Amino acid sequence: MAYPPPRTDSGPPPHLAGGRLTIDLDALTANYRLLAQRSAPAEASAVLKADAYGLGLAPAAWALWAAGCRRFFVALPHEGVALRAVLAEAEIFVLAGLFAVEAAAAYREARLIPVLNSQSDLSLWEAHGWDDERPRPCAVHVDTGMNRLGLTPERARALAEENALTGALTPILVMSHLACADTPGHPLNRRQLESFQSVRALFPQSESSLCNSAGIFLGGDFLCDVTRPGIALYGGTPVTGAANPMRVVATAETRVVQVRRAMAGETASYGATPLQRDSIIAVCSTGYADGYHRAASGAGVPLRQTAAKGFIHGQRVPVLGRVTMDLTLFDVTELGPDAVTVGDHIELFGPNMPIDEVAEGAGTVSYELLTSLGRRYHRDYVGGES
Ligand SMILES: *Cc1c(COP(=O)(O)O)cnc(C)c1O
């Protein structure tokens, strides 16, 4: 079934916003297709947790459905309910499991499939799961090395034996999660695969799933039946340090609201970062409240060796001094006088400033930059018409 494009929340209008965020839905679907190819013969699902990694659940879900994706993972029950309102027919898995007996009705009404992670999840779903053609459909998460969520392999084995007798649950998917998939040579990858393979054999009726974005690039046996890409859909590099094969989905730009000149020996921003030279400073109207992390702060700030950089008029420009809540200073001295003017925009990340480099400059990962974007940017959703 085709869906009409959902109403999208484009945030404040551009002339009232401190920055703009452009979200390219064609790039998103191209990324999905590439990941689906790399996943074959497995089927690629899509992970839409945390508001589609900050980029907007409804437009992302709709575009991915149009691109042929039929299975989706969210983290929390309320995200599953929101996704059901966008996609009536999708298969929706909730990674966090069931939470509490009070949540079961919402799972039933929205036809959500819990990923059962613990004994209490198992008991709750046996008592309160929904039935259609199949009783209490669920996914079973087995922990193979993260010590985060999931049954131990021993508990999974016991479950498989019990359930073969009682048929109380229909585990349509058995899954695990890799701890080091972005480091292809890490020995834990293979150990987790072997542990997972022995568990998955206990559930012959179920499909299996092991790979996040990075796992897909491990290929081979890792792929199992279903892959679960997240970050690579949204343009983040799946494998640390390797060339990024994904298209840019999100471009964040900040508005220049003032251009100042300051002399060597003066200071900039909180904590008074001393200026080493006569400087031209572009004052920009986004800050850490917009997910431009304070840790992206510039040279001269204690513990920061290198600042994150922005991009304007063909050049990279470093953050100067501390990032503040609503404002960030960029050192645009190298561009020369009058090159940058009020009303210009500096790209924070996008086609010219890869998000993974910015994340590195801020001591974090692309995931955190995307999911912290917040609601103050004006958002332009482009593409996705087909
Ligand atoms: C977030 C998550 C994914 C997606 O991971 P990416 O690294 O973003 O591709 C897959 N599986 C589980 C269990 C997750 O929590």
Features of the shown structure:
386 residues, TIM Barrel, six-stranded mixed sheet, elongated, binds pyridoxal-5'-phosphate
- Percent helix range: 25-40%
What molecules are bound to this protein?
Answer: pyridoxal-5'-phosphate
CATH class of the largest domain: Alpha Beta
Query: What is the domain total for the residues?
Result: 2
- Would you tell me which CATH topology of the largest domain applies? TIM Barrel
Distance between the termini: 14 Å
Summarize the helix and strand pattern as letters.
Answer: EHEEHHEHEHEHEHEHEHEEEEEEEEEHHE
Structural class: alpha/beta
Radius of gyration from CA coordinates: 23 Å
Main pleated sheet: 7 strands, parallel
How do the strands of the widest beta sheet line up side by side?
A: 3-4-5-6-7-8-9
Q: Using the alpha-carbon principal axes, give the shape.
A: elongated
Give the tally of β-strands.
19
Uncertain runs: none
Proportion of β residues?
15-25%
Walk me through the structure:
With 386 residues, the protein is of the alpha/beta class. The chain has two domains: 25-234, Alanine racemase (TIM Barrel, Alpha-Beta Barrel); 250-353, Beta Barrel (Lyase, Ornithine Decarboxylase, Chain A, domain 1). The chain is 26% helix and 22% strand. The chain has helices spanning 25-39, 49-53, 57-66, 77-86, 104-109, 119-128, 153-166, 187-200, 213-216, 355-361, 366-371; strands at 19-24, 43-44, 46-47, 71-74, 91-94, 112-116, 137-141, 170-175, 207-209, 226-227, 250-262, 267-268, 273-274, 279-284, 309-312, 315-318, 328-331, 345-349, 378-382. Strands 3-4-5-6-7-8-9 form a seven-stranded parallel sheet. Strands 1, 11, 14, 17, 18 and 19 form a six-stranded mixed sheet that branches. A hairpin with a 4-residue loop joins strand 12 (267-268) and strand 13 (273-274). It is elongated. The mean pLDDT is 94.
